[in-house]
Amino acid sequence: MNKILEINNLSKSYKDFSLKGINITLEKGYIMGFIGPNGSGKSTTIKLIMNLIRKDSGEIKIFGLDNESNNISIKERIGFVYDENHFYEELTVKEMKDVISPFYTKWDEGIFNKYAKDFELPLNKEIKHLSKGMKMKFALAIALSHQAELLIMDEPTSGLDPLIRSELLDVLQSLLLDENKSIFFSTHITSDLDKIADFITLINNGEIILSKTKDELLDEHYIVKGSKKQLNNNNQRNFIGLKQNDFGFEALSKNKKEVMKQFGDSIKIEKPTLEDIMVFYTRRSDHHVSSH
Ligand SMILES: Nc1ncnc2c1ncn2[C@@H]1O[C@H](COP(=O)(O)OP(=O)(O)OP(=O)(O)O)[C@@H](O)[C@H]1O
């Protein structure tokens, strides 16, 4: 086992929110998708990993090293991409690159030029005139040009159109062909993960709800559909979440056998998507949706 990122019992409290002793492990060569609803603690966790804010307690190890005492050497080996990348808006893409590159001892101009060409970056355009998608590609090109072993991205695909999103995901996937690289990225667009994630970690309300391989997660859960009159107080105990509308109910369950036994053939059992899993684990239990 080669742990690239190891978070143990990490806690951080704000006035109205706390991360409650979270644990996450990412091994070398894999992509982990970090999902959860708005305000669940994704950005806070990423800021703690990047040592941008101080933890209250717990431990964060990156490449086996404590992230506070080895801050500088660790940052050299990480590519960090986030939504509000702080570039100087007045500079051109090339000028900005010239400002950033000296900070990295392993900067590789050849790699930057390759990505600049692949992504069709307009080198002489001012940053303020770049589209959101182009800014994101620039941030990714920078992150990839110093031979980072770990890419950490906070919502890299948010606000991007489907075409650019899909291009970005292709680039991430091709990076993983080099098994020395690992990727940890947060998103609330679960369809991004269907394609590329190896592991999924779900956070809700500052707590890790689950963290496992995507395949395991999809294999062990089932969507159960039926009519409302089939429900009673007893037969809901195998449900992780329940959604009712005027036509019937939909639930998530891990226990297919037991559900089949209780409901018989009148029930419909389907495979869930990652979105189903996220929604059912994080919704309020009394949720009722109207059919409109
Ligand atoms: N500096 C701060 N002071 C006080 N509260 C904060 C601070 N930063 C974040 N929070 C609160 O912590 C909670 C978690 O925020 P966080 O940004 O980590 O969520 P998130 O999962 O990244 O959400 P989103 O998907 O909306 O970006 C929110 O309720 C937010 O208001």
Describe this structure in words.
It is built from ten helices and 14 strands. It has 292 residues and is of the alpha/beta class. The chain has two domains: 3-217, 3-Layer(aba) Sandwich (Rossmann fold); 221-282, 2-Layer Sandwich (Alpha-Beta Plaits). The protein has a six-stranded mixed β-sheet, with helices on both faces. The chain has a four-stranded antiparallel β-sheet with strand order 2-1-4-5, covered by helices on one side. α6 (162-175) links the parallel β7 (150-154) and β8. α4 runs antiparallel to α5 (132-144). It is elongated and about 65 Å long. The chain starts with a strand and ends in a 10-residue tail after the last helix. 33% of the residues are buried. The model is unreliable at 285-292 (pLDDT under 50). The structure holds adenosine-5'-triphosphate. Residues 14-15, 17, 36, 38-44, 188 line the site of adenosine-5'-triphosphate. Adenosine-5'-triphosphate (ATP) is lined by residues 14-15, 17, 36, 38-44, 188. GO terms for molecular function: ATP binding; ATP hydrolysis activity. Keywords: ATP-binding, Nucleotide-binding, Transport. Residues 5-230 form the ABC transporter domain. This is ABC-2 type transport system ATP-binding protein. Pfam families: ABC_tran (PF00005).
